[in-house]
Each structure stands twice: as structure tokens, then as C-alpha cells.
């Protein structure tokens, strides 16, 4: 309580002053005084579960052998596994990931009221409060929405005792009801970078080429799969193609009439074993009719899958037309998976350096990843009420990792690596990562070992992910880095949500202002283009080609001839590490417009900066700088950045424009100001400077003697005014005016 004593200005006797003083001292003595903790008592833990022993550790949360000690305040005393808190003190535990369950024991040492535990929800609202008694009480609290923090308070007249604090965090926080839709989630457009390419038609008259890779030991050819079931051997010297296998008879009929012939099924993946030279094995992933029981299925009893995704092993010899002879009688089925709908099949497969095979699978198709949604006139099944994206109990919406040379799987056809993240715990042993909507294309960087996936979004966000063991990439509670709301029978959408879920954000993402479906590619490790070395190259179904720059942001290639390749379907990498774009005119698995375009990088010349001519201006003038004379030998679009390099600091209006402005400042004498412009074509830059001279206007006018002595007249008038003013201020002191 604060007291304010206001003394009125009047004469007071000494006894009155003494009385006021005594009252003031009495007020101070009767005011309540609170004891404060001597250091910070609020701590945050990012662990998803834990068990605390309260103690006098430093004011951080220290984890040791599954326990954590926290306090760091002299008022929190440790005895055994108990924590004694003196009166008038509070300790707070905050959870970075909200707690789903927590438990704590408490009692009041003397029985006096005031020792409590307060529990707050994720909106920081007090949801419950518990008061201690002289007997031990165990508080066991469960919250489906999540607990954000807990306060341990002792406002009693003596000690309070808290013991055995433990908690388990939520694995995910449900999005709020009807969140606000983001109409433009990523406002910044994708800019052209400094890398310019020429797309050279390399091999033509395919149908719908979707992937290409090299075979170990074969240096003259690389191999491209066609969605309709063909495996083509492509000559690295000439681009001539040879049919090395026709697997179309194994596939479903590709091309859905109701969708104008569009389809996502077909021959989707091809990978050669790293030891191909010795074991002669390669693998395909394809969409086949439902046949027999699947190894993995999410279909309810009595419901049929649209098709099955099948992983097959083949044997081949080096030689023959196309450099490869595949034994079509050697097929060995490794894995069969029910696919609820025709789309979101994933299907990309690739090996790591340890001869482990990775298989990309989508969420089962349709929209929103939830049962009951209408899709092509039929209510969706095979997703359950919560979807497949966050369910590690089935293989959809995941990337699997298996050992094709092993046999400890349930069907005995492959092995399960013992260090897979879900081995020995809840979840399918084969899963390597999850939370992926449609990881249509995946590839390893052979130098860094990073596994990149292009994950196709729903209505808003396209993303490139760096896949790590056990990683959760968010779908169907996130689309990219944004929250995803299924919206019932309406169209799902993204909304802004803080980082409250244990998910991994994309390396890069873009929205549907820039594209429609991301097509993952490769990290360039060829020898032809140093400027492209180590950059991830990818594209979009709409025909745009991108790369990741050094800051892990997206830049668009500049195409010298502005070639329209049509719909980009995939990428290929040959034995030398050079890259190819795979496309056809309309994205449909029909016709013969499919082609390979070799990526050829053109040399980039530096722009030439021109900062304009020097200027002389007066103070107060509006000055316009001008870099409009800058140029680029390649005709690349230019970006500008103006900075001031000398003189009194001024404010440049729009310094990233070719012609920014500023107001010439007041100067005591003629002064010089220098400005420098950097002109950048997205890869190379050049600088130029210009000098601006600012004149002092009063200095210029001081030499003007026009007016015939007007300055002298002004001075006389000033003196007269001063005399009369002083006279008026000096008044004789008389008895009548004191």
C-alpha cells in the first residue's frame, strides 16, 4: 500500500509538526512488506517429457539421468527429494511444448493456508488452482488442449513442501476452431537469379518422362522411366534412346477419362543397387491393379483400394542396345501397399551410400487427408478420422527405409535397419520420416549426404524438405510452415500459427502465386559449371526452373531463349553429374511430346554501374540521384542499392530504386556529399559513385549590397527599440511601488 501525505502551506506549531511525523512513522510500520525471491524463478523446458526433483541448482533447468533440478532461489531449500519454499515466494515452470499430463505432490508445513499450485492453459488462462493441507496430496492433471505453465506458490505463514514434479508433453496441438485463412501466405515473389541457362533438347518423342538416373558401371548411358511403363536407355553422347524394358502390362490403365486423361499412377520410381556391377539388381516402384493381400493397408474392411503400389526387384546384364539388358522374367515382389485414391502416390525410390533403399509415399490421395471428404464424386476412405499424415501406425505419408538385401521384415522379402527411428517403439519399423503429403521426388546429395524431397502441397504451399531420421514434416496439421485447417466439407486452407508443434519446417517454400506443384530435382555435382556446383536444382509443374542460392532462398533461372518446355514432370542426372529437365507439352501420360532438355549454363558478365553526373544544388532543394545509365551486357534485370559514402547524413527515399531522392540539408558553407550505387544482376555486381555539392544560400546572399543601406537602417531601428525597451524596464523605486 502506498501513502501520500500532503502538507498544506500554513504556520504550524512544533507540536503539530511532531504529530505529523509520528503519524507518518506509524503508517510505515503498519504497511505490509512482501519478501521477494532473490533471483528469477521462471524456467522453460523444451523437453517433451521429464521428471523434476526440486532443488537449489542454478537458475536453469538441468537434466541428469532423466531428472531435472530447478530453482536457483535461496528461498527454495532442498531436503532429500523434497523442496521447501519459504513464505511469500513463487516458482514457475513453463513448457515450450504444452504439457498433456503432469503430477506433483504438495503439503503445507504448518497447516497455514496459502500454499497453492496454479495451472494455466495454452492461452495462459488459469484453469485450476489447488491448495495444500498438512497432509501430502498428489495432484494428477490431464489436459487435452495443453498446459502452458505451472505456478508453485507459498503465501502461507510458514514453509510449503513440493515433491516429485513430472510431466508429459502433447505430441501436437490441435489448430484452433475456424482459424483465419491466409489469402496470400507468402507475399514475396521469386526473383530471377544471376544464373542463365540454355535448355537444349537432348532426347525427344517420349510420352511422359518422370525420372532419370545412372547405373553404376555404365558410363555411356543413363536411364529414364516413362510414366506409361517404359524404361529408356539414353545415350550420353547423342541423346538417342533405346527401349530397355516395357513394363506397361503390369500397370493399371494410366489416364483417367474423367480428368481429361490426367493421372498420377504409372511407373514412378527406378533405382540401381550401388553394387549393381556385382549383383546386377535394380528396383522399380509402380502402380498395379489390386492383387492379393497388401503388406500395408489403411482400407476399412469391405472397401477396395484404388490400386496398389508395388516395389519390384529385377536382374539385368550390362550390354546390348541401350547398355542394359533387363531380364523381364526375373521380377521379385518386395513390397505391396494399398493406395486408397489414384493420386499422391509418391513413388520415388533411391539408395544411400550404405545400400539402404528409401521409398517415398504420399498420404493416400484425395484432398485434406481425412475420411468422408468428397473426391471425384465419392466419399474418401482409407484416411481415418485424423488422416494418415501424423499416423506412424501406417506407411502412407512417409519415407520408408529398408535393406533390400535383408530378410527380417514381416514378409521376409527385405530387411529393416536396426537404427530406423521407430524400431522398438510405437510406429511402423520401416518408417524413416513422416508428415509428408506427396513427396513426389527425392534425391541424395552425394557430397553432403542430405536427402531432399519435393513435397507437393494442397491449395497453397509447395516445399523442399531436408529429410532426417524420425523427422515430422507437418502434414496434415501443417502445409509448409503454416498451420493447415481441413475446413470440414469446404476447401482446406492455411493459417498463421506459432511454433507449438514438434514439426520440421521446409528448407524453402513458395505459394501458389508462383507455381502449382513442386517437382524435386538434384544437387548439381557435375564438372561443367562451377557457378552451379552444390546448388539444388528443381522446378514446378507449370514450367518454371529454380535453384537454391547460397542463402537457401529460391532463385529462378534466366532462360536465354525463353523456351516453353510445357509441364515439368521430373529431372534426370547422368553418370557425369549433369542434369536434365523432363517434360511434355501438357502433363498428361499420352502422346509423344515428352522430351529431355539438357541444362547448359551460360557465362554471366558483370553489369556496369553508372551513378550519373555530379550536381550542384542549394540547401533545401530536392535532389534526384540517377543510376539509369547502368547496363548489363547480358541484358539481365538489374537491382540497385544506394548508400551515402561521405557528408552529413541524409535520408534517401527509396534507396533500392534506380533514382532515389533526398532533400539537400542546411549547411554553414558549401559542402560535398558522395553517394555510391551497387548494381547487381543477381550474381555479379558493380559500383559507381557521384558527388553532390550543396551551396549555403545565406552565404551566397551576404555579398548583395543592393537597397542602398537598408542593412544600416535596420540596425538603427534595432538600437532605438532596445533603448526604449530598457527605459521601460527601469522604474525608480518609490514607497508606492514596492
UniProtKB/TrEMBL annotation:
<dbReference type="Pfam" id="PF22352">
    <property type="entry name" value="K319L-like_PKD"/>
</dbReference>
<dbReference type="InterPro" id="IPR035986">
    <property type="entry name" value="PKD_dom_sf"/>
</dbReference>
<dbReference type="Pfam" id="PF07995">
    <property type="entry name" value="GSDH"/>
</dbReference>
<dbReference type="InterPro" id="IPR011042">
    <property type="entry name" value="6-blade_b-propeller_TolB-like"/>
</dbReference>
<dbReference type="InterPro" id="IPR012938">
    <property type="entry name" value="Glc/Sorbosone_DH"/>
</dbReference>
<feature type="domain" description="Glucose/Sorbosone dehydrogenase">
    <location>
        <begin position="264"/>
        <end position="584"/>
    </location>
</feature>
<protein>
    <submittedName>
        <fullName>PQQ-dependent sugar dehydrogenase</fullName>
    </submittedName>
</protein>
<keyword id="KW-0732">Signal</keyword>
<dbReference type="InterPro" id="IPR013783">
    <property type="entry name" value="Ig-like_fold"/>
</dbReference>
<dbReference type="InterPro" id="IPR011041">
    <property type="entry name" value="Quinoprot_gluc/sorb_DH_b-prop"/>
</dbReference>
<feature type="signal peptide">
    <location>
        <begin position="1"/>
        <end position="36"/>
    </location>
</feature>
